[in-house]
Amino acid sequence: MSENQQNQSVLENQEERITQLEIKVSYLEDFMNQVQQVAVEQAKTIELLRKENRLMVEKIHEMVDSLDSDIPNRKPPHY
Length: 79
Description:
Layout: H1 3-70
């Protein structure tokens, strides 16, 4: 094999490697976009759950407060 053929073979090998790397980068970019979409959806879900949790805590406090005022603070009849 002549030197020119060897150089051509090396160039072809490098081009193939570059093409394979470009394909991998393309797949990684797509994957990162998908991960980002999932992260955004999860952040929205977390925020919604936090709001719901706050509302439930407020409701429980309201219920406790109303029960405290409705129940007299005295001993039950069996004492």
